[in-house]
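for the recovery benchmark. tokens below, seq after
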């Protein structure tokens, strides 16, 4: 919960800006994808030296707040919430697999708060059937996320984040080229 606080505050304070301005500018997504890919490459290379000796349960509040501040940058469209939390985890001494695991757990309050706040702001104008569909979708999203995170943790125990960083950079270039066309 400590790591969630910065994102909760930023999301609450800048909700209108995020919803009405940032989401309306596709070029922001391009820059975010590209810069995020470069940062992920750099942090992954720098943390290769230090394989991560920290433990999630031993992180002091200042490191948790640091991870939360990085995650709060993900209110910008195109910035990956999980990547910012992973970068924060790696930067505070967590191993790759611990950073991925922490990012997943940090997603739970973040997603609930974001979805709940958005529902409140939209006037919660859904029918009972739409709420049922929403709950079923949330349930299956959670289950598939658990499975994906398990595979992802296994992957990062043997590999680095280079392929994900390159993917972000290439995707940014493809989106940029298609925007110009």
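predicted aa per position
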């Amino acid at each position: 919960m400590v790591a969630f606080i910065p994102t909760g505050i930023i999301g609450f304070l800048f909700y209108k800006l995020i919803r009405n301005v940032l989401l309306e500018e596709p070029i922001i997504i391009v820059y975010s994808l590209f810069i995020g890919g470069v940062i992920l490459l750099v942090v992954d290379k720098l943390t290769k030296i230090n394989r991560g000796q920290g433990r999630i349960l031993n992180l002091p509040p200042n490191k948790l707040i640091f991870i939360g501040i990085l995650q709060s940058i993900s209110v910008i469209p195109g910035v990956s919430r999980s990547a910012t939390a992973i970068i924060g985890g790696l930067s505070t001494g967590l191993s790759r697999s611990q950073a991925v695991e922490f990012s997943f757990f940090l997603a739970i309050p973040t997603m609930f708060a974001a979805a709940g706040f958005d529902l409140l702001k939209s006037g919660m104008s859904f029918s009972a059937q739409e709420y049922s569909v929403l709950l079923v979708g949330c349930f299956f999203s959670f289950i598939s996320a658990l499975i994906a995170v398990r595979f992802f943790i296994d992957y990062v125990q043997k590999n680095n984040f280079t392929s994900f960083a390159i993917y972000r950079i290439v995707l940014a270039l493809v989106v940029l080229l298609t925007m110009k066309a």
